[in-house]
Write a structure and sequence with these properties.
TIM Barrel, eight-stranded parallel barrel, 39% helix, globular, binds 3-methyl-2-oxobutanoic acid
């Protein structure tokens, strides 16, 4: 389906309803935005993963609103007809609803169609506040990188009945709050399937199994060019289980992204080896 950003909410819902997998990829600049759009990527995510893959930081915590605005503008310039999601960085939506609205509006003005915020709980009210004021929202649940310190590292979430129920309830409440997408990171595939079957909202998985409504990967993981934070040796880095290097198979960046899109669409990616 060729998605027009203006109709993005309806188009994404229709893709879930017709069981067409949504292919999402992170993107931070105009050149890759153009290549990714031409390769058939449905949604570009200007992720705060840029803190790691572009700035060389240990985590996403020092990414700022000016960083996100700059990269969102770059991506929007390169892919004017593709749906763009921009991450709300750490500290840009937690203080007050008004603060969240003001920052979300800046990302929309920079070219995003949807803003993404992390965590359930109290953030469900923030998501509802934004949606009621005309800002489309993607809710990021499961492993939420901005809480990496609270979560004690990069760990799979929702392994116990209690935590699985909490993530499911958060997803249901986010869906009822009117979010456009629920992104599930590093949760058991069975839990992601259960959530996908329980809500009308499309789900996007990363390390969440093949049964989500779509998938997302970090561009640098897809190209096999992320080797960990700047100050460590590449040999000290082990790519996450959910990452797949699509460039290794054919040597062309364009073809690697086309292959990723195809693998998402025909549900050969993620395979069991990329899931929990
Ligand atoms: O920031 C990001 O790139 C993300 C993906 C890992 C989903 O949130």
């Amino acid at each position: 389906m060729l998605l027009q950003p203006i109709h993005h909410l309806v188009a994404l819902e229709q893709m879930k309803a017709s069981d067409e997998a949504i292919a999402m990829l992170t993107c931070y600049d105009a050149s890759f935005a153009k290549i990714s759009a031409a390769a058939g990527v449905d949604v570009l995510l200007v992720g705060d993963s840029l803190g790691m893959v572009l700035k060389g930081a240990e985590n996403t915590l020092d990414v700022t609103m000016p960083d996100m605005i700059y990269h969102t503008k770059c991506v929007a310039a390169g892919a004017p007809n593709t749906i763009i999601i921009a991450d709300m960085p750490f500290g840009s939506y937690e203080y007050s609803y008004q603060d969240a609205l003001q920052n979300a509006q800046q990302l929309i003005a920079a070219g995003a169609h949807i803003v993404k915020l992390e965590a359930g709980g109290e953030m469900i009210n923030t998501a509802r506040y934004l949606v009621e004021r005309g800002i489309p929202v993607c809710a990021h649940l499961g492993f939420t990188p901005q809480s990496v310190q609270q979560l004690g590292g990069y760990k799979i979430q929702g392994r116990t009945d209690e935590t699985a129920q909490k993530i499911t309830q958060d997803a249901i409440k986010m869906s009822q709050a009117g979010v456009s997408l629920v992104l599930l990171e590093m949760v058991p595939a069975s839990l992601a399937k259960h959530i996908t079957d329980s809500i009308p909202t499309p789900t996007i998985g990363i390390g969440a199994g093949v049964d989500c409504s779509g998938q997302v990967l970090v561009l640098q993981d897809l190209l096999g060019i992320y080797t960990g934070v700047a100050h460590k040796k590449p040999s000290e880095y082990k790519a996450p289980r959910f990452a797949k290097n699509f460039l290794r198979e054919n040597g062309s960046i364009q073809q690697a992204i086309v292959d990723y899109v195809q693998a998402v669409k025909n549900r050969t990616f993620p395979a069991l080896e990329h899931s929990y």
